[in-house]
Amino acid sequence: MTRRPLSITLPRVLLAALLLLATAVVVGAQAISYGVPPSSTGLAIGEVPHERPGFNVCRLMYRSVTQEALGSGWTTDYPAAERNLLIRIEELTLIHTAKSEDREPLHAVVRPTDPALFECPFIIASDIGTVGFLGAEIEPLRQYFLKGGFLWVDDFWGPVAFNRFSAEIGRILPGLPIVEIPLDHPIFKTFLEIEGGIPQIPAISFWITTQQVAERGTGNPARMYGIFDEKGRMVVLMTHNTDIADGWEREGESVEYFERFSPGAYAVGLNAVIWMLTH
């Protein structure tokens, strides 16, 4: 299949807002912490916001049974990816997000066995090619999907990581195939129109040192896959051979990196959130 160069159609007002925000974020980049423990949000692991309602993102805490270059297991891209995504969601859409008393975005960390899992409308997991689910985690995750849950997995590269996650999610959702999402699928234009497929975004450290976008020895393009239930609802979204969340997490560290990768990363993120909320 011939793949055209990536093109993102941004309304002029939105593009101007992103560029202005990029400048503001870079100026304040030193105020963004990238090593804050889960309690930094005021929420313990396994706790979701109740007193302050609004859309929130949950990070899946999982067990890694192997290692991938540039990955750090479940904490990869955490917590700045969630924080920045939630900020952009409220800036660029009409979606209200949950906030703390000091107006910081509230995001949660949940384990597969936490009861709070079922209070998370949108769960993300990075470096998912290292996962190994415990037996006790299989049924809660299966029930989560059956009850309407949605999982987005990102930042896993090459066939080994793909096959590992495929095998693990197959234990949870047996009989449901992984299918590549075609370029004419509505998710590519739910909010912002993305042409040519999803962007291939490298970790900022890899890009700065190599000026290349294909990590971990793979020259394959980025792909988007999905798993759909019997009613046709997407329950798992997979962005493979790309690190979409790094475009959120690292937006304040380099104007050049932001301008090249962050608009595409946010386009994919906003489309995914709105798709999940409307389907």
SSE layout and pairings?
Layout: E1 7-9, H1 12-27, E2 58-60, H2 80-92, E3 108-110, E4 123-126, H3 135-146, E5 151-156, H4 158-172, E6 178-180, E7 193-195, H5 204-210, E8 223-228, E9 234-240, H6 244-249, H7 255-278
Parallel strand pairs: 2-3, 2-4, 4-5, 5-9
Antiparallel strand pairs: 1-7, 6-8, 8-9
Helix pairs in contact: 1-7
Instruction: List unreliable stretches of 5+ residues.
Output: 1-39
How much helicity do the residues have? 25-40%
Helix/strand structural class:
alpha/beta
Q: What is the total domain count?
A: 1
Regarding CATH, which class?
Alpha Beta
CATH superfamily: Domain of unknown function DUF4159
Largest sheet: 7 strands, mixed
Mean pLDDT, all residues? 84
Helix and strand succession? EHEHEEHEHEEHEEHH
- How does the overall form come out from the CA principal axes? globular
**Strands ordered across the widest β-sheet:** 3-2-4-5-9-8-6
Q: Give the N-to-C terminal Cα separation.
A: 28 Å
- Helical stretch tally: 7
Strand content: 5-15%
Strand element count: 9
CATH architecture: 3-Layer(aba) Sandwich
Could you give a short description of this structure?
The protein has 279 residues and is α/β, with parallel strands linked by helices. The protein has a single domain (38-278), classed as 3-Layer(aba) Sandwich (Rossmann fold), CATH 3.40.50.12140.
